[in-house]
Write a structure and sequence with these properties.
Rossmann fold, 3 domains, three-stranded antiparallel sheet, 13 helices
């Protein structure tokens, strides 16, 4: 990919997301990654470098990118553009190396192949709209959003009932959240640095029951005792323990297939000088690479802006959309998202074309799905957390393949 002006509008969302495009690109040899340190032999090409985003301004700025070709027939495959949420978190570190890329650091200086890499086969709505409006020579095929924040009140207040329904909080705490200070009110006050005594009191009671021993990214899995919180560091410390929007770090392993210390291994790997050189990366104004950055100065009040109508306008224009949610995610619970998508479909006049049913990966139920007008899809991922490719890689890959191929999720 040659350095070129690229217009991108970025709005804060707490979700994992991607856009699928058909595009021809001329990747420059200068950006080609010959090999990453410790990398196993592979058949596909990799590229990394910078895309200029404001060449006309005095202070030139660029976005770092990491591009991996499909394993087979890359020229005929759609281009997938992935952005992590956070806000302010790395799509390379927490996307490619943590979630769905071809490699994961082993911790011993080498990379291991990701068996479920996706190259085998609230940024999204805004960027999709911008692509259409700017008349860039790209064909936007569709967009998929994982565990997305659409409506601040609906999505965050969904935590309250979800905590209670999973037995994470008591009846009394649920009553306090329902009648005294709900989660969206708590966050709204905290964003403004004006946490009321009554909301602080409610949060204290809820936090006692949730504790740091429950990872709200995935309430079904055991966790390590967090040593570092990567998110909401600027908020009132009284509320930060409840909102672990990114993985906690520790030197232990939990569950059979989830490496809880993988984020630490990624930090160590991407801070190696030889790795940064191989990726053509330059640390400008910072001393080390971190999974999430405060230097971007995101305005957390942007979280309160709804993107539901924007999603609706894109669907109405003919853009296929899939919204998927891990059912073990307590950050943006699937219950609120499912209700919101159903309401949007009714507003758009879309009839149900695939009634609510289970979908399968292998012989096991992978989740549930409902499709509206053959253009708007909701799907849950059974056992999936806030980052479904990490917690349910097989099911997430099956969902991703079906979306790319325009096929329904498997019925058996």
């Amino acid at each position: 990919m040659q350095s070129q002006p690229w217009i991108v509008m970025v709005i804060i969302l707490t979700s994992l997301l991607h856009i699928v495009l058909s595009v021809e690109s001329d990747l420059s040899n200068g950006d080609k990654v010959l090999s990453l340190p410790g990398q196993p032999e592979v058949s596909f090409q990799q590229y990394a470098g910078y895309v200029l985003v404001n060449s006309r301004m005095r202070a030139r700025r660029a976005l770092f990118y990491y591009f991996v070709e499909a394993e087979t027939e890359p020229a005929s495959k759609p281009l997938v553009l992935w952005f992590n949420g956070g806000p302010g978190c790395s799509s390379v570190g927490l996307g490619a190396f943590f979630s769905h890329g071809p490699f994961k650091p082993s911790g011993s200086g080498t990379l291991i192949k990701n068996e479920y890499s996706w190259n085998k086969g609230h940024y999204v709505p805004q960027l999709a709209q911008l692509i259409i409006q700017s008349k860039i020579n790209l064909t936007l095929k569709g967009m998929a959003m994982g565990n997305p924040l659409f409506e601040f009140g609906n999505d965050f207040n969904g935590q309250d009932e979800y905590y209670w329904s999973r037995g994470l909080i008591s009846d009394n705490s649920y009553k306090l959240l329902s009648t005294v200070c709900n989660t969206s009110t708590l966050l709204s006050q905290a964003f403004r640095g004006n946490l009321s005594e009554v909301c602080a009191s409610v949060n204290t009671e809820v936090s006692k029951e949730l504790t740091l021993s429950i990872d709200t990214n995935n309430v079904q899995e055991d966790v390590c005792v967090p040593t570092t919180q990567l998110h909401l560091q600027n908020l009132n410390p009284e509320i930060s323990s409840r909102f672990q929007l990114q993985p906690s770090l520790d030197q232990q392993k939990v569950a059979a297939n989830i490496d809880a210390c993988l984020p630490l291994k990624i930090v160590a790997y991407l801070n190696r000088t030889d790795v940064q050189t191989a990726l053509h990366a330059k640390l400008v104004g910072v001393t080390e690479w971190t999974p999430c950055s405060k230097f971007l100065n995101y305005n957390l009040l942007e979280l309160e802006k709804s993107t539901t109508q924007l999603l609706g306008s894109l669907v109405k224009s003919g853009i296929s959309a899939m919204v998927y949610s891990g059912d073990a995610d307590a950050i943006i619970p699937f219950t609120g998202t499912r209700t919101l998508i159903d309401g949007l479909a009714k507003e758009l006049g879309l009839n149900v074309t695939v009634p609510y049913r289970a979908w399968f990966e292998g012989k096991q139920v992978a989740g549930w799905t409902q499709v509206y007008g053959d253009i708007l899809t909701f799907a849950s991922v059974r056992g999936g957390g806030h980052s479904t490719p990490v917690t349910q890689p097989e099911r997430s890959l099956a969902l991703f393949k079906a979306f790319l191929e325009g096929k329904p999720l498997a019925e058996s």
